[in-house]
From TrEMBL:
This is 2-dehydropantoate 2-reductase. Belongs to the ketopantoate reductase family. InterPro entries: 6-PGluconate_DH-like_C_sf, 6PGD_dom2, ApbA, KPA_reductase, KPR-Related, KPR_N, NAD(P)-bd_dom_sf. Pfam families: ApbA (PF02558), ApbA_C (PF08546). Keywords: NADP, Oxidoreductase, Pantothenate biosynthesis. It comes from Christiangramia flava JLT2011. NCBIfam families: apbA_panE. Gene3D superfamilies: N-(1-d-carboxylethyl)-l-norvaline Dehydrogenase, domain 2, NAD(P)-binding Rossmann-like Domain.
Length: 311
């Protein structure tokens, strides 16, 4: 199989490096010093599960150099996905499969604007990793997992083939019964902690130990639950309870990637998280005051970061 990994940050770098240990043809779309280091030396992953090293078949920032892929895995941030899809569109086949792994709940919708819906799977990943140095990915916690499924909820041969591919790469994977529900479950967790983390600038342990901030997190999550239910997503109060069990089990010093982006003055996924909740709630005539407060407080910082940083 000819596989293209578009974006070699923490997510694309880890899973791309795993895939490059197989006999499949693997192409990385990367840039800058990170790309140059991988071209010279391959990609290294320092992992709590054991370090490993691999060499993709091609590493480039020029799409004219690629072969038309059978599978594209998107590892870019959610706010970069539309540009990635637009850039890639002339270079793919009518039967190329697209698997987005970004945070957020609109990724499949974004891809449908550029490709046939029949080519698109729903997906998400659970992984804590980041670029430690050019050509080096650091994986810091739990077993990384890719969850994926058909948007139609059908069980198809290509899902089984994709699962077999991930098995070959030693990537834990789950075929979801309802991928939209799974995507929203992760969104419920990541949106609850990310914006507030960016606003308070403290790790998750400090937020959960504060009675006041814990209550804000609960209100944030409940607003997301109400929005999901209004949009026909099968989420429940049990899912909110499970999110707070996950929050309780997190390393007290951990921070979300969007929080780190906000704190470091980089463009973040704020619009995809709290911003999405605010804008969609307006369409559904739902009140989301906590998400609105978080979003409006952080928006000026987000705009400044985007003015300084090209997409």
């Amino acid at each position: 199989m000819n596989i293209l990994v578009y974006g070699i940050g923490g997510v694309g770098g880890y899973f791309g490096a795993k895939l490059a240990t197989t006999e499949h043809h693997i192409t990385f779309i990367a840039r800058g010093a990170h790309m140059e280091a991988i071209i010279r030396n391959g990609i290294s992953v320092n992992s709590i599960l054991g370090d490993f090293h691999s060499h993709p078949n091609l590493v480039t920032d020029d799409l004219n150099e690629i072969q038309a892929p059978d599978l594209v895995i998107f590892g870019v941030k959610s706010w970069q996905l539309a540009d990635a899809a637009k850039n890639l569109k002339p270079y793919v086949k009518p039967d190329t499969i697209f698997l987005p792994l970004q945070n957020g709940v609109r990724n499949s919708e974004i891809l449908i604007e550029y490709f046939s819906s029949q080519q698109i799977l729903g997906g998400l990943c659970n992984l804590i990793s980041y670029i430690e140095a050019p050509g080096v990915i650091q994986h810091t916690d739990f077993v990384p997992t890719i969850t994926f499924g058909e948007l139609t909820k059908k069980k198809t041969k290509r899902l089984k083939a994709l699962s077999k591919l991930f098995d070959q790469a030693d990537i834990k994977n789950i075929i979801a019964e309802d991928i939209q529900r799974e995507i929203w479950k992760k969104f419920l967790f990541i949106c609850t902690i990310s914006g507030l983390g960016g606003l308070t600038r403290v790790p998750i342990g400090k937020m959960r130990d504060s009675r006041y901030l814990s209550e804000i997190m609960k209100n944030t999550a409940n607003e997301i639950l109400f929005l999901a239910q209004a949009k026909g997503i099968n989420l429940s109060t049990d899912d909110v309870a499970k999110v707070f069990k996950i929050i309780a089990d997190q390393d007290p010093e951990s921070t979300a990637s969007t929080q780190r982006d906000l704190m470091n003055g980089r463009p973040s996924e704020l619009e995809t998280f709290n911003g999405y909740v605010v804008h969609e709630a307006q369409k559904e005539n739902i009140s989301v005051p906590v998400n609105t407060f978080i979003y409006e407080c952080l928006s000026p910082m987000e705009r400044m970061a985007r003015e300084k940083t090209p997409s």
